[in-house]
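Exercise: predict the fold of this chain.
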Amino acid sequence: NYREANETSTKKDFLFRMRICRKEAKETIYWLQLITEANNELDSKTRPLIDETIQLVKIFASIIVNSEPK
C-alpha cells in the first residue's frame, strides 16, 4: 500500500492510499494484540512488532496531516 501511494499521480489518490496504510497498520496492531492475549508466551515476540507498528501508524498519520491541503 505504501509503495502504491508513492506511485500515485494525484495528491487525492496519495492521501487515500496513505489512509489505507494507516488503517491496515492499526488492524495489524489489533491482530498482534489478539495473538498475545490468546497466548501470553508470545508476548516477547509480538511486543516489538506491536511497538514498530505503532510507530508506523504515527508516521503515516504525520504524512497524512502534512500532505492535506491547507
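Check your answer against the key: The mean pLDDT is 96.
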